[in-house]
Design a protein that fits this description.
Helices cover 33% and strands 21% of the residues. It has 296 residues and is of the alpha/beta class. The protein has a nine-stranded mixed sheet. It has a two-stranded antiparallel ribbon with strand order 1-2. β11 and β12 (277-282) form a beta hairpin. The longest helix is centred in the last third of the chain and has 18 residues, at 192-209. The N and C termini lie far apart (62 Å).
Length: 296
């Protein structure tokens, strides 16, 4: 096969120097050798039998039954629905190997990139969560890193540049909170094309740093009860379909402003479906509420 390609390539070079040759034919044969239609950077196609014979292990789970290393996920709910608290607790559970919404986390290192809160608020929340879980600073140490970007104008390009200095696999989970703070200039979130390109870039970033990437998102204003889990991200519908895992917190009918109750819903590409479950807010965290029916 290699010899055939070399001989064909040499003939194409000779033909290219011949003014009488058909340039379109030369281009077509060159593309055929490359194994693609002329789009740069795409992998060559191959036989299904050879593909199945390759040893391709599944990426390690970061959250058992839900999220793997190198995958992208969204955490979606309405404004002021305690998403930031929820994401921070996930990072603590990854750092300590705890349970998050009843799902076991594999012990690892996490990074929180917070674009919204003041550093003092982050400190207070982290301390409150650790205390509520019976933990202390010594339990997270260098397994939980964080940075506060409030007041900074940083887009996805800036995030990519910021993470360029880390080695692949340095972190098991990276959380960006909230995603809208990373929108490029003149970005229109209701554009399917722009949202698809944005989330495609997030996928590439997660694979490059070899870490799961959780993006904290707002859901649209108004009644979202008729929307499916993957359609809850504010903006164009391509956003929910682009990620590997969608995690949604929907208000339960028993929820009150002073006593919130949420239904946790999930959709994952590489795991079997999980049943929705109810959780009550007992500051500063969600507690399982098995007495409630998630279908109500």
């Amino acid at each position: 096969e290699r010899r055939r390609i070399i001989l064909t390539a040499q003939q194409l070079v000779n033909d290219a120097f011949d003014p009488a040759s058909d340039i379109e034919s030369i281009l077509a044969q060159t593309r055929a050798i490359a194994g693609h239609s002329g789009v740069r950077g795409l992998p060559r196609y191959g036989e299904a039998g050879a593909f199945l014979a390759r040893n391709l292990p599944m990426a390690d789970p970061i959250i058992e039954g839900l999220l793997r290393r190198g995958e992208t996920a969204t955490l979606v709910s309405s404004s002021k629905a305690r998403k930031s608290w929820t994401a921070m607790e996930l990072l603590i559970d990854v750092a300590t190997g705890g349970d998050w919404f009843g799902l076991k986390c594999r012990p690892g290192r996490g990074l929180l990139i917070d674009c919204e809160l003041q550093p003092a608020t982050l400190q207070h929340r982290l301390g409150s969560l650790l205390h509520a879980k019976g933990l202390g600073p010594q339990d997270v140490q260098d397994r939980l890193m964080l940075t506060a970007w409030r007041g900074q104008t940083v887009t996805l390009a800036g995030l990519t540049s910021y993470l360029a200095g880390i080695q692949p696999g340095d972190f098991d989970l990276i959380v960006a909170d909230p995603i809208y703070k990373l929108y490029p200039k003149d970005f229109y979130e209701n554009s399917n094309a722009q949202m698809a390109e944005l989330f495609g870039s997030f996928q590439s970033l997660a694979e490059r740093v070899n870490s799961a990437l959780l993006l904290v998102c707002h859901s649209p204003k108004g009644d979202t009860s008729a929307r499916s889990t993957i359609d809850l991200v504010s903006g164009a519908g391509s956003a929910g379909r682009a990620v590997d895992v969608a995690i949604a917190l929907r208000p339960h009918e028993a929820s009150e402003e002073a006593h919130p109750v949420m239904v946790r819903e999930t959709i994952a590409r590489s795991f079997a479906p999980l049943f929705p479950e109810c959780f009550r807010w007992e500051h500063p965290r969600w507690i399982a509420a098995p007495d409630l029916d998630p279908n109500d």
